[in-house]
Amino acid sequence: MESFGISEVFPNSKPAHSERELTELMAEEKLEQLLANPDNAFLTQVPMNAEVIENARTFREALTFAEKRIRERLEQTLNVRKVVGGHSEHIHVNPDSVFNTLEHIQKNAQEIGIGADGRVVIDTTDMVNINPEICYKFALLEKVKRGRNSVAEEAELQGAFYEVAQTIASKDIGVPMPYYEIEVQTTQMIAMERLHAKSADDIIRGLGTLPAGFDIDRFCNSLRLFIDVMHAHDLYHRDLHFGNIMISQYPEWVDGEPMGYVIDFGLSGYAHKNMEPYKKEVAGDTFTYDDDYGRIETLRKTLKVVKTRRS
Ligand SMILES: Nc1ncnc2c1ncn2[C@@H]1O[C@H](COP(=O)(O)OP(=O)(O)OP(=O)(O)O)[C@@H](O)[C@H]1O
Ligand SMILES: [Mg+2]
């Protein structure tokens, strides 16, 4: 029986690639993808790396080198800290388990809130418990410079506010407990207690409700007391707008349970004697922040309007 070569049957078809050529094509494509990722800019910007990639005999060789350097860099930039009280402690971890955890969270993330500095998500695979108790705040790129804390500083300050909040006899105002913080390359994330609460901003916009029995005056007075106590410990929040004040979303408020929470310590800081508490100097820039008490009376009035309108 006569046999035909493929090019004789389909004269326009190109000869099939050899396995070796296919591997090279795939390696070239993968390498291109890696180099296009801004996280991997160091591969082209660091001359030593760029040289090895350019002079590699095959794309496969270049890809193997690039992957090795990416991995090394991931490990070098990885920092995991556990928040203990107002401090954080570096902890030794298995890099793979951290990378896998981060990848898993990002793949299954459901956004529960977003601000100028961070995106807060829950992991939908935690939903077996219906209400996951943990959420993750991923830092966003700082668009407007406000002298923002690093994620490590933010987590520590949150820990400090949390600790001091525990000492207040009235439990009306809480702080979400920070658990740990991960930094790797450009990813910065704080894992913390997830609150069953909505921001005052969301509630005013109709995206949440005031629980039955919620006493607006008591809540606003407790917020004042909370700020007094924090200031007595030199802790200044400096960003207490309606998006950073949370109100419990249990249908009914029960005395002894938190009525709400203060969140987001991205601009907070310690202010010691002889320091202006609402000013911060960072690398020659001076940033000025709002007074912590500044929004409370407006909040009181606005929540009362909301309550009257909805009752
Ligand atoms: N622990 C939490 N539990 C539930 N929801 C949360 C929690 N932390 C934050 N959120 C939600 O995510 C939103 C954004 O969080 P956060 O205020 O920390 O981000 P941000 O970008 O720093 O905000 P800002 O714009 O004030 O700088 C909050 O307004 C709130 O609705
Ligand atoms: Mg906020």
Compact description:
This protein has helices at 6-9, 19-36, 42-45, 47-55, 59-77, 95-107, 151-166, 200-204, 216-232, 296-310, and strands spanning 79-84, 87-90, 109-114, 118-123, 134-139, 173-174, 178-184, 187-193, 197-199, 235-236, 245-248, 260-262, 269-270, 279-282, 285-288.
Fold topology:
Blueprint: H1 6-9, H2 19-36, H3 42-45, H4 47-55, H5 59-77, E1 79-84, E2 87-90, H6 95-107, E3 109-114, E4 118-123, E5 134-139, H7 151-166, E6 173-174, E7 178-184, E8 187-193, E9 197-199, H8 200-204, H9 216-232, E10 235-236, E11 245-248, E12 260-262, E13 269-270, E14 279-282, E15 285-288, H10 296-310
Parallel strand pairs: 6-12
Antiparallel strand pairs: 1-2, 1-7, 3-4, 4-5, 5-8, 7-8, 9-11, 10-13, 11-12, 14-15
Helix pairs in contact: 2-5, 4-5, 9-10
The structure holds adenosine-5'-triphosphate and magnesium ion.
